[in-house]
Amino acid sequence: MVTEAAAEAIGAGRRFLIAVSGGQTPWLMLEALAERLPWEEVTVFQVDERIAPDGDPDRNLTQLERVLPLERVDLRPMPVTADDLDAAAAAYASSLPPHFDLVHLGLGEDGHTASLVPDDAVLDVTDRDVALTGSYQGHRRMTLTYPVLGRARRVLWLVAGADKSPALARLRAGDLSIPASRVSTAKALVLADTAATA
């Protein structure tokens, strides 16, 4: 799906615009794609990021910088070290394309995706493409919101591990009580390992 989306965008004379989530699955995906994407024609945005210093092991950016060919790809990190985070979120939103060619999403045990987490006010943000969460698992976060995710040309869910099985079942059932199920499924593909589907 990723290489197809890239070929479609580049074939239409555009850069391939992809937004990547955190968690474990994107790093494996990007490593697998290392020799299969024309990175000079790719722009990588972040779906979400923890509010933490540069180089922090909890930052998704730390892993992105490890696996991406930084000398070839246009990487657009979320500005989570800014003094004014609200202004930084607005600035990042203004830098986003009207449509991503592909958004990669993961799935948390509690049914969250991106940093759209249960019981957080961010779930109700519809007037901004980027917003800030409250504290979740020790960090506030910057995240893309439902409207921008819903405008993506394709959404790719990667779900791995037995601990994700209950949440995956709820996602597949369209259970709107979990945040992940509120992402539009019209253009989505869910890839899950055997453990997650058991």
Describe the structure in your own words.
- There is one protein chain.
- With 198 residues, the protein is of the alpha/beta class.
- The protein has a single domain (2-197), classed as Rossmann fold, CATH 3.40.50.
- The protein contains seven helices and nine strands; from the N terminus they run αβαββαβαβββαβαβα.
- A six-stranded parallel β-sheet has the order 4-2-1-5-8-9. It has a three-stranded antiparallel β-sheet with strand order 3-7-6.
- β8 (155-159), α6 (165-172) and β9 form a beta-alpha-beta unit.
- The longest helix is centred in the middle third of the chain and has 11 residues, at 85-95.
- It is globular and about 40 Å long.
- The chain starts with a helix and ends with a helix.
- 40% of the residues are buried.
- The mean pLDDT is 93.
Strand order of the largest sheet: 4-2-1-5-8-9
Total E-strand runs: 9
- The share of residues in extended strands comes to 15-25%
What is the helix content?
25-40%
- The helix/strand class is alpha/beta
